[in-house]
Amino acid sequence: MLKTVLTIFIVICIAVLGGGASVWYMLNAKESVGAVTVGRWTAFPEIGTPDADPYAKARIAREGVLALGRAEGLTFTAQRDTAGDALRRECSYTIEGPVPPARFWTIYAADANDAIIESRKLRPSALHSYQLLRKPDNSVVITAGTNPSPGNWLALSGEGRMSLVLTFYDTPIASSTGVSDIELPAIINAGCNG
Amino acid sequence: MVRLLYAALVALVGAAIVHISVLLLLPHFSDRDAWARLAEAADYYKPVRIDAAAGEVPIVRSLDPLFYASACRFDLSDGPVRVHTPGNVPYWSVSIYNRGGQNVYAFTDRATDTGQLDVVVLSAAQMIETRKQLPEEFRNSILVEAPVGQGIVVVRSFVPDISWQPTATRFLRNLACSRS
């Protein structure tokens, strides 16, 4: 008798804890269903729309996000550099390569909690495409790091994991079906402090 | 042994049921979603800044640091809601969200001929009524039929550099979100 009650109790405990923990894990995972991956960049074109999957819906409800509409823009996030190593704030990265058509785009670095990394210098903590210096062939090279660098410098501060957030505004890639056909810049590690 | 396998199977099925129920119920019971956060900050029809520049902690997460944004909650059962502000900024966009924070309609300043922000959000029935005889004050407005009862309007304004901050701040400070 006691054995049966104990078994039922354990089964219920496993069900509730296992179910709860698996939802928690899925909602905290950065890669999830509905993601579009281009190189190391990941976007969720359907997040925040009524077409989103239940995981995306639960995530926006839990985090209080008001996602960009498709007509407004599309956000890509990178957690790793092109070589596959995690992005770190004490390292310098060279971001170069093709960008898809858009009215303009912005880039900034975010910490592990998705909060913006302040530059802590007399520099803006984000760059946008209207202000960038361009090479003769109209391409752009951005250097992200704590050490000042010539050209387009995305100033960082602190230490630890980070992600890069690249947002295209008023762009046809968000509304067309060709999100997976586009090309995005490579993120190349250019050395680390210490 | 069979008994143990049976118990493990029941636990697994139970965990799956709990997983699905928590997942589907979470959006309905979240007290941390955008609507709840805005309700804490301001009443209906009162625009409130949601970006980090206006206060210490942004009300809504994951906003571009180069953007200022304001949001106001509305209830279409009170009648159509008109959102307008004078002035020009390099780029603005308007998003309409439903009660659950899902984006149901969005457009940018390119949708207008003058670049002036003037939007009226209506339900399907109000749209028919308004179309019959267009009120004078809606003459230059963009009419948006939204499949929502209660919802949130968000206006985003691009701030390219520090020199644009006063203009963008004024643009959002003059934002009117009113029943009509």
Structure description:
- The complex is a heterodimer of chains A (194) and B (180).
- With 194 residues, chain A is an alpha+beta fold.
- Chain A contains 3 helices and 10 strands; from the N terminus they run H-E-E-H-E-E-E-E-E-E-E-H-E.
- Chain A has a single domain (35-49, 68-192), classed as Jelly Rolls.
- Chain A has helices spanning 2-28, 54-63, 172-175, and strands spanning 36-38, 41-43, 73-78, 91-96, 104-110, 126-128, 141-145, 152-155, 163-169, 186-192.
- With 180 residues, chain B is of the alpha+beta class.
- Chain B folds into 2 domains: 1-30; 34-179, Immunoglobulin-like (Sandwich).
- In chain B, 30% of the residues lie in helices and 29% in strands.
- Chain B has helices at residues 2-29, 34-41, 124-132, 165-173; strands at 48-49, 67-75, 81-85, 92-98, 103-108, 117-122, 142-145, 150-158, 176-179.
- Chain B has a 5-stranded antiparallel sheet with strand order 1-2-8-4-5. In chain B, strands 7-6-3-9 form a 4-stranded mixed sheet.
CATH architecture classification name of the largest domain in chain B: Sandwich
Distance between the termini of chain A: 64 Å
Percentage of helical residues of chain B?
25-40%
Please bin the fraction of helical residues of chain A.
Answer: 10-25%
Biggest sheet: strand arrangement of chain B: 1-2-8-4-5
Number of helices of chain A: 3
- Summarize the main sheet of chain B: 5 strands, antiparallel
Radius of gyration of chain B: 21 Å
Strand content of chain A: 25-35%
Overall shape of chain A: globular
Percentage beta strand of chain B = 25-35%
What is the ordering of alpha helices and beta strands of chain B? HHEEEEEEHEEHE
The tally of strands of chain B reads 9
Structural class of chain B: alpha+beta
Residue windows where pLDDT falls under 50 for at least 5 positions of chain A: none
What is the mean predicted local confidence, pLDDT of chain B?
86
Low-confidence stretches of chain B: none
